[in-house]
Design a protein that fits this description.
Length: 280
Amino acid sequence: MRALDGRVAFITGSSRGIGKAMAIRFAAEGASVVLSASRIGAHGQLPGTLQEAVDEIIAAGGKAAAVVCDLLNPESRADLIARASEPFGPIDILINNAAAGVMKLPSQITTAERNMMFDLNVNVPVELSQQALAPMKEKGQGWILNISSRTAELIELPYPDMPIAAWVVGAYGASKAALNRYTQIMAHELIEHGIYVNAMSPNYICLTNVGPEVEAIAKRRPDMIEPVEMMAEAALALCSGSQVAHFCYSRDIVFTTGNKVMSLDGKTLLGDARMPGTLE
């Protein structure tokens, strides 16, 4: 029996990158996966589409469906969990992966930019979690995973990289810090219902459609890179076990659970928690 047989997972921001990787990995472990993005087709010059991600999972023998939603539109997201439950039934696993950041000096971030980040990075995960609670409570189990960021931590001196790199992620990090705090207290509230709530971040950099600032850091510090398979494996561990109230890092979860890092289709052993990332 596979780790997620019979379960339904809903993952926001899953047309590409970390979200898509988690969707493929979860489907390989037997989950019926509902993917979501703001559009079914191409988004500017970004590689990959929501439809292509769904088709890839189905072609590999998995179960997948798509739900389109503009998460920054309160009306569009108001019934999102209900719509995501239509293809395969009530959601067992909710992964709040969609996020956005404006990489500017904190003294230059506008109110509109700050509101956008806090809406997508804090309000959306909270609202979707609230929508998912009734069916999870009825089942007596559920898993909610909020994808966070190391930028949520207070910066330390000396900076691990150029000072401006720490400054321009500050506002984004503040929104993720708020998400981490909300995650922790929601986890304490919901554990009595068998609902496991956690937040997880890459240890440093997972190179999937990142901005030029982050890509520049990765080129200078390749030791900070981790493969997307690490995030997918860590998410699988958190969404199939009983860990709760963690704000944790992907490598740490893979290490402490003793899991190995598998290819996204679950067929090939790639390594363990020490597996390096690459710039490719």
